[in-house]
Design brief:
This protein has about 260 residues and is mainly alpha-helical. The chain is built from six helices and two strands; from the N terminus they run E-E-H-H-H-H-H-H. It comes from Molothrus ater.
Length: about 260
């Protein structure tokens, strides 16, 4: 119930069948010599077409044996008549073979044309799909731009509608500081404010910390009890042997700590 498949099949190692040498006796024509042109893979093993050829060869040999001898004018005329009939039969058979070959060629041509048409239709479909996708992307981009412009114009109209009379309003400081989206908290660059220019505005600048003279004055004013600093030396994380080597467990702990970080 189980089967195996090797890397090399038995059929790949099969050679042509062995054909021993032979000697034909003088005056005899064995029928098997009519199959000498057939080889393994080219006519052998014999199929329906090869069997028809063998039958035709046998009929021709029988017809040749039945031909009358050329010893009298009547036999000669009869022989010529039989040969003409055989020639017509051969031409009819040849025409039939040509018709079969032409039909096979026509079927092959039809399949090739059908395959080419299918490939061409598939290529046209892919091109149409790409063209449609490009148009869809352009359409979506255009719609996105229209929506953005519409929202921008609506905001402008809403802002203009608040003061449609164009009256000058006095600044309301309380409302500005109460609204975290106002110009006080979030000024706009289009009205002349650039936050990057004053990036260090809120940075702490201390004379006693940024200058050497300030540090000296700060040290003089500090109490003496502040300066004595007790520092505990950390214990080594790695386990060291008496000979000075680090154990494998210690190395693993260091690697695990690095990976954890």
């Amino acid at each position: 119930t189980l089967g195996t498949q090797t890397d090399y099949r038995d059929g790949e190692a099969q050679t042509d069948p062995y054909s021993p040498e032979y000697i034909v006796r003088s005056g005899s024509v064995p029928e098997i010599l009519t199959l000498a042109t057939l080889t393994w893979g080219r006519g052998l093993p014999a199929g329906q077409a090869e069997m028809e050829i063998i039958d035709r060869i046998r009929e021709k040999r029988a017809w040749e044996a039945a031909l009358p001898p050329m010893d009298s004018p009547s036999n000669i005329a009869k022989r010529l008549k039989m040969m003409e009939a055989m020639e017509r039969k051969e031409w009819a058979y040849r025409e039939e073979e040509i018709d079969k070959l032409q039909k096979v060629q026509m079927e092959v041509f039809k399949k090739l044309l059908q395959r080419r048409e299918e490939n061409r239709n598939e290529l046209n479909t892919m091109r149409l799909n790409d063209h449609w996708e490009n148009h869809q992307k352009a359409k979506e981009e255009k719609m996105r731009k229209i929506q953005h412009d519409c929202a921008l114009i609506l905001r402008k109209l809403i802002a203009k509608r608040k003061n449609w009379m164009g009256k000058l309003e006095r600044r309301d400081i309380i409302r500005e500081y109460n609204d975290f989206a106002s110009q006080t908290y979030a000024p706009l660059s289009r009205i002349g404010f650039f936050p990057d220019n004053n990036s260090d505005y809120y940075a702490v600048k201390n004379y006693y910390l940024n200058t050497f003279a300030g540090l000296c004055e700060l040290e003089k004013s500090a109490l003496p009890s502040i300066f004595p600093i007790k520092i505990k030396a950390p214990k080594p994380k790695c386990i060291i042997t008496k000979t000075g080597y680090i154990k494998r467990s210690g190395r693993l702990e260091v690697v695990l700590a690095q990976v954890h970080q």
